[in-house]
Design goal:
Number of domains: 1
Protein name: tRNA pseudouridine synthase C
Catalytic activity: uridine(65) in tRNA = pseudouridine(65) in tRNA
Oligomer: single chain
Structural class: alpha+beta
Radius of gyration: 19 Å
Number of strands: 13
GO molecular function: RNA binding; tRNA pseudouridine(65) synthase activity
Pfam families: PseudoU_synth_2 (PF00849)
Order of helices and strands: EEHEEHEEEEEEHHEEHEH
Number of helices: 6
EC number: 5.4.99.26
Length: about 260
């Protein structure tokens, strides 16, 4: 088993590239699973790690953990207060809008009660089409198939928010078994060697909870998504692994 790609680590935090298909921690909904990101990361670095936020199992990309309960609690609070900048890349069906704010309330999907009984919570996602492609194949009822590369910036943190918002707007993410369309999912899996949810968390930026600096993390795509981008001529949009840690004071000076 390959080691996890650690993007950043100091005495308080560690950030890692979560592979698609890997659960973050043990769950009653996945009793048969034996591999979890939290345990693998703990064993790899030899330290206990504390979860701060979440990524869906099929989503890949950057995740940050605390190396103490204090650091995790402080950073988790920043996520709750929407003080963390998050960016995702998604491959969707159709030619997505050039730019749009999706503002659709969402009911929670936590499995404790029927979704219809859950209250609808405010949810906002900003999307931007970065590129698109038209393939000369009939996948659905049209003689050509169109797909878009979308950057999504969730302003809130509802479960499956990006997936549900894009699906409701009419541009479901490829590989989404629950909110997508199976004929397009099968086409990507069988013909384009992309059998996963094509959603990746590529950027996180936040003020360090215990050190006077801002952490800006960029995360490269895995081989499946990177290869697909090259096939579609989207190579110029491939993110790279990178870390920037400017002092918060310096940022404040530049913004004046």
């Amino acid at each position: 088993m390959l080691p996890l790609n650690i993007l950043y680590q100091d005495e308080h935090l560690v950030a890692v590239h979560k592979p698609s298909g890997l659960l973050v921690h043990r769950s009653a909904l996945a009793r048969g699973e034996t591999q979890f990101l939290l345990q693998r990361l703990r064993d790899q670095i030899g330290k206990r790690v504390y979860p701060v936020h979440r990524l869906d199992r099929p989503t890949s990309g950057v995740m940050v953990f605390g190396l103490s309960s204090e650091a995790a609690a402080l950073l988790s609070e920043a996520f709750s207060k929407r003080q963390v900048e998050k960016r995702y890349l998604a491959v969707v069906r159709g030619k997505a809008p050039e730019q749009e704010r999706l503002d659709y309330p969402l009911r929670e999907e936590d499995g404790t009660r029927p979704k219809a009984e859950m209250p609808a919570m405010p949810a906002t996602t900003d999307i931007r089409r970065l590129d698109s492609v038209e393939l000369p194949v009939q996948v659905d009822r049209y003689p050509v198939a169109r797909y878009s590369l979308v950057e999504a910036r969730p302003m809130t943190g509802r479960r499956h928010q990006i997936r549900r918002h894009l699906s409701r707007r009419g541009y479901p993410i490829i590989g989404d078994a629950k909110h997508g369309k199976s004929v397009h999912n099968r086409f990507f899996a069988d013909q384009l060697k992309a059998p996963r949810l094509l959603l990746a968390a590529t950027y996180l930026a936040f003020d360090h909870p215990l050190i006077d600096k801002r952490i800006q993390l960029s995360c490269a795509l895995d081989e499946t998504m990177a290869s697909l981008f090259e096939q579609f001529g989207w190579g110029g949009h491939l993110p790279l692994d990178s870390v920037r840690t400017p002092p918060i004071a310096a940022l404040t000076v530049r913004q004046r």
